[in-house]
Amino acid sequence: MRITRRVALRGAGSMLALPFLESWRPFIAVAAEGASVGPPLRMAIFTVAGGTVLEAWKPEKIGKFDKLPTILESLEPFKEQMTLVSGLSHGGQVTGCAHTTCAGLHLSCGGKLSVDQAAAQAVGGETILPSLEMGLTNHQTRFSYRNGTAVPFEMNPHLIFDRMFKGRPPMVPNWTTRQAALAQAIRESATSDSVEQSVLDAVLNQANVLRRDLSKSDQRKLDEYLHSVRSVERRLELIEARQRIETAEAASALRAPVPTFPPHAHFEGYVNPWMIWRNPERHAEFIRIMSDLLVLALQTDTTRVVTAALGEDNAIFPGVVTGGTEHQAHALEHNGNAPKNQTPNPVAREGCRQIHAWYTQLFAEMITKMQNIDEGGSTLLDNCMILYTSYMADGGHGIQDYPTLLVGKAQGRFKTGQHLAYPVGTPVANLYVEMLNGMGGKVGSFGDSHTAEKQAFNGRLPGLSEQLTDRTNTKGR
């Protein structure tokens, strides 16, 4: 078949008009079956820098929490809504730029897709934004990956707010009616018998005829393009349906409190993160603002997947670090995490502990706000799965025994109030499999959960969602 310019243009136009009906089948089924309604589960990842100081992070006791270690003390009111997981590690060797290598492993476990983007693929079709990435914009902030390409993080809160709410007020959904109304709107659109719908059917037949005369390589390209077009149409239809529902709810809906930001000029000159992180007060201000945006994004169901990178290895902490003369996090991390057969500097290690206790205090402020947001008999925290962690296991570029804390009841998906200890070397990817399944996916593997040198437990974490019992060791697990 000779493809002329006229044929190509006609084909391009037809492909841009393909129907989205099949993509909406799950929503139609939900509306038809009258499924239960209520707040959805959301997932957030709150990442800081420099790993942790293990003896001040990991409880000595395995099983039900007793007294929390010093880094986590500010989370004491929430310990019954937390699960601390120890022993999780990344495989392989840290080579080249260690910080970049650790960042690349952090959420993707060596694969081309990060856990947050995998979750966005599963649930992102139900919200205005599939996911939201906020925080650092330096070379280390390459945590989120989609098809092997790093997803950029945004650090200007005004741009994040505009992206979320440009043209729409920040309203709190009425969860007793919202999901059913959205499904109904999609069903009505999908079952309409309009002239446009008939034209789309005819165009699809033409596209199928064209496909038969293409090479296998071109068929794959065409299929990928058609899939992309369906995704765009699906997003557009969702946004239109959401706008109609939000307009109908506007008169009676609650407005979410909007954070007070400093003027735009306060942030627009921050090409270099040093403008924030050389001053702990500015650093804390930045984390609080980003945390407020994270909470607002989840509360308004603008997205159900948020990744926040809010730490910085090069930050300076005068006043936070109270001992010695060194206040730069990076120097303290290396001096406080000595290589094998060398003794770490105890003053530097204490400085690292103080920095991580400082980060945790700011994280606890965010958790408190989530606990205080009512969602019709449950709280926002009840309906969230929040991973508090670091992109390195320790400041010496370690990748063994990561600081891993799940916060929030996750609607009962996981057993909380406990410390689960796994053999050091158990893949971090196993946790991500559990998290993705907790979000409603049907995931058998992720990253290197089945291929790591120390792969364990068939790619899962036994006990994370099982009945809690006190344990004193992990033998036989």
- Amount of helix: 25-40%
Query: Which shape, going by the Cα principal axes?
Result: globular
* Number of E-type strands: 12
Rg value: 24 Å
Which strand order does the major sheet show?
2-12-3-11-10-1-9-4
- Largest sheet data: 8 strands, mixed
Write up this protein.
The protein has 477 residues and is of the alpha/beta class. It is 39% helix and 12% strand. The protein has 14 helices and twelve strands. The chain has helices at 5-15, 25-33, 98-106, 115-123, 157-165, 178-190, 195-212, 216-249, 265-268, 274-277, 280-299, 329-336, 346-371, 428-438; strands at residues 42-48, 63-64, 82-89, 132-135, 145-146, 149-150, 171-172, 254-255, 305-309, 384-390, 404-407, 418-427. The strands form three sheets. The protein has an eight-stranded mixed sheet, sandwiched between helices. Strand 5 and strand 6 form a beta hairpin. Helix 5 (157-165) packs parallel to helix 11, helix 6 crosses helix 8 (216-249) and helix 12 crosses helix 13 (346-371). The longest helix has 34 residues, at 216-249. It starts with a helix and ends in a 39-residue tail after the last helix. The model is unreliable at 5-36, 192-200 and 467-477 (pLDDT under 50).
